[in-house]
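To the team - iron/sulfur cluster complex, inputs and output below.
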Amino acid sequence: MLSAAERSWAEERLERILEHEAKEKRRDFIDDAKIEALLEETANPAKERVRDVLAKARSLVGLEPEEAAVLLNNTDEDLWQETYAVAREIKQEIYGNRIVLFAPLYISSPCVNDCIYCGFRHSNSQVRGQTLTWEQLEKEVQALVTRGHKRLIVVYGEHPASDIDFMCESIRRIYATRKGNGEIRRVNVNAAPLFVDEYRQLKEVGIGTFQVFQETYHHATYARLHPRGTLKHVYTWRLFSLHRAEEAGIDDVAIGALFGLYKWRFEVLGLLYHAQDLEREFGVGPHTISFPRLQPAVNTPYATSSPYLVADEDLKKIVAVLRCAVPYTGLILTARERPELRREVIPLGVSQVDAGSRIAIGGYEEMEREHIPEREQFQLGDTRSLDDFIRELCEDGYIPSFCTAGYRCGRTGEHFMSLAKKGFVKNFCTPNAVLTFKEYLLDYASPATRQAGEKVIKHYLAALEASHPAQAQAVRERLQRLEAGERDLYF
Ligand code: SF4
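Output:
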């Protein structure tokens, strides 16, 4: 239950939010009836229609929600196999073999909201709300960098203890933490929607992407799962949260839906309308899209009894259709999913994954404990170490990347998208991926992973040598400098 101080903080903030919403000029772009009608109209599509849409997807121009609805409604297994093949092709064409790696860092869990599906909801007496002290934060970051991580997504509950000043200070401290060659080079943020002036403060401290998931785009479901009187109940405040972030100059924003709260086909279309609206207003869509599935959490029966839980096979469909519909938008698959399923889903279009993750507050300091339910928002499916995960990626022919060069060279937002559309990601980011991967192999990898990783780099260099010998020479030269002890080299 909330204390009097927490209640008064939440009430004040809610008042400010409602005042803001009363003046909001933007129009809610999610039309539930239209989405439901679209899904009905495209039910059981003819084979030719599905193939027409796939042909368009192959040309990398993206799909309209109407076209994505055709793919989502396909019921023919052979056509799904064709859809997966197209999704794989698109991923290969735009991203090559590169997979970007990051880790989540939960900094605070107390939350004034009461979302029915969440372990951190304030009425859940079996989860202990906790906020890291500065000393604990430093230890967590050191534990992460000594395993090789360079990119984080930091997570905060919506609470007076983790207000904007706290967030900014914690991010400054993360960037300032060093251990050996270890440092965090990009901090992305997952937090509650903010006001424009608050986003500006976050921009000042140098964040990468700001991420807000709408959870569900379906209005009635949203209202039911986020009780009236809580901050999160206000649908449009959340829907336009990333528009406000863009207004404040944060040009990498990330959207997502929590799959399992409502019909998965509806949520995919909601994500696409969201992406379209950001692109319409700011000239660039979201940097990434996430599609987490509802997972079990302590004392949270809704998380396992929702009527809309998504099957493994349907998760594959979600990823493949998104890859076809928004070819240049990064897709994030998290460690919520089990190892075997991650291995199957990654080739269908995923560009970023977290690995070696712990989501309990203070979890990296107690790495050997895979689950600490009383300190977790939900339960992870993949608790393997970063090293084990990387070795599997190498065996599957991927180049793991810790690269943050694009962000630090200003290749973000609209600029990033225009480069991505010229094949830049593959030709420019892959050499940087190789350089950061080499750092990992030199500083953190186990002997077996080092062996598997060196093989991947050798293979990459041989292919590059054949097509772009001058670039291959430039990469080789930097790899030698890394071997000689330099770090943080990029193109
Ligand atoms: S989903 Fe987020 S906002 Fe809702 S209770 Fe959990 S931590 Fe709080």
